[in-house]
Amino acid sequence: MSASDRLDREGMRRHNLGLVLRAIADGDRPSRTDVALVTGLHKTTVSSLVADLIERELVCEAGKASNGTVGRPAVALELAGDRYVALGLEINVDHLTYTAVDLLGRVRDQGSVRQDNRARSPSRSLSALAELIAGPRNRLKEAGAIVVGATLALPGLVDPRDGVLLVAPNLGWRDVAVVDELQAVLGDDLTLRVDNEANLAAFAERWYGAGRTHRDFVYVSGYIGVGAGIVSNGVLHRGETGFGGEFGHLTVEAEGPPCACGSRGCVEALVGLDALLRRAGKPSSAETTAHELVEAAQRGEPRTLEAIEVVGATLGVALASTANLLGSRAIVLGGYFAPLCPWLRAPIERELQRRVLAFPWSPIEVMRSELADGAAVLGAAALALRAILDDPASTPTG
User: Fold this and answer.
1) Which of 26, 222, 241, 390 has the most beta carbons within 10 angstroms of its beta carbon?
2) 308 has a pLDDT exceeding 70
């Protein structure tokens, strides 16, 4: 066999190994026969590949498969969650957060600290994040887990390919090589990625949250800033440049209030948390939490309810334009919008019904995020874990 033939065979096996692992991950405890039917591979090939995946501790046998066939019961397969873990990290305006998630989606460690990152340089915030995850990394290692990678979620325009934050208006950061800077602090033994926090939250919703029931939806994240992640046909949409989904900077009022991005009348300037608090006559977001807003709404405070109504209607107008453009079937409300969903839903739905052309034939469901504040870091970890599903041969054997 020539060297090129051998490489072709090794490449094909590597491809098929990922094909089988993803079939097991996406299935409901499938048998080897089920996997063969889904992948189109011969059952003997599937058995060999499953043996490889078991050796790598990516897959385990899980009792008898209930596939309704006559004869000897088949053995069910499922992902093994004990060995491989990924870290999801987030730097936002007022906090640093991390979570460690295994292949089964179980949270193995998590933590958060509140700090104003607008008052810090990028280097200081990245160093503080490295200090925050030092303990969890050691604990995971002592437990026998392998941390396969980490993804950092940031509230701004991110180039995931080069690992650079181009601009984060609400942090006041620009042109920061976040992956290189964080890698220098953490060391080269951890594969790092970076992405926009709303994109990662949408990714988490697709696999773990409300988005499981929809292949086309828009996830809207509300904090001081406002972002969105677009899932189309089950896949996160970033656009060719990678900068798609900047919903917060869609212009709603051409001569509206100034936005941190330098424009005017952006969605973010009109429905961000600070904008809602001003309308409700509350202190700034550093002093008032979404929980306090919920309590005020539950008490029936007229000014708070009026502010939520205006924000919901404005959000509905912007989402109607988005739905007309994308044809999305659902809207998932995250960030501070999630706990206020009971009050925001009616004005949003009213504007969708009024303004979305196809609404009578294709209604749009407005849903509350099931993941709330943890969506971005959970999606960040899931993105790193996805690398294993795409290339399980990159993991050690034995």
Assistant:
1) 222
2) yes
**392 touches 21 (CB < 8 A):** yes
Q: Does position 7 have pLDDT exceeding 80, yes or no?
A: no
DSSP 111-136: EEEE--GGGS-HHHHHHHHHHHHHHH
CB atoms within 10 A of CB 72: 7
* CA–CA distance, 398 with 366 (Å, rounded to integer): 47
Among the listed residues 354, 279, 361, 342, the one whose alpha carbon sits nearest the alpha carbon of residue 316: 354
Would you state the pLDDT for residue 3? 52
Q: Which domains does the chain have, with CATH numbers?
A: 3-79 (1.10.10.10), 84-200+376-394 (3.30.420.40), 211-370 (3.30.420.40)
Helices (H) and strands (E) in the chain, counts: 12, 15
Q: What is the pLDDT of residues 318-371, one digit of tens each?
A: 999 999 999 889 999 998 899 999 999 999 999 999 999 999 999 999 999 988
DSSP string, 300-356: T-HHHHHHHHHHHHHHHHHHHHHHHHH--SEEEEEETTTTTHHHHHHHHHHHHHHH-
Q: Which residue in this structure is represented by tokens 């385990």? A: 60
CA 17/CA 30 separation, integer angstroms: 16
Beta bridge partners of 258: 264
Q: Which residues pair with 110 in a beta bridge?
A: 99
Q: Is 265 left (phi over 0), alpha (psi -120 to 50) or beta?
A: left
Q: Tokens at residue 287, please? A: 């002093």
Using CA atoms of 159, 161, 163, 169 in order, give the dihedral in degrees to the nearest 10.
Answer: 0
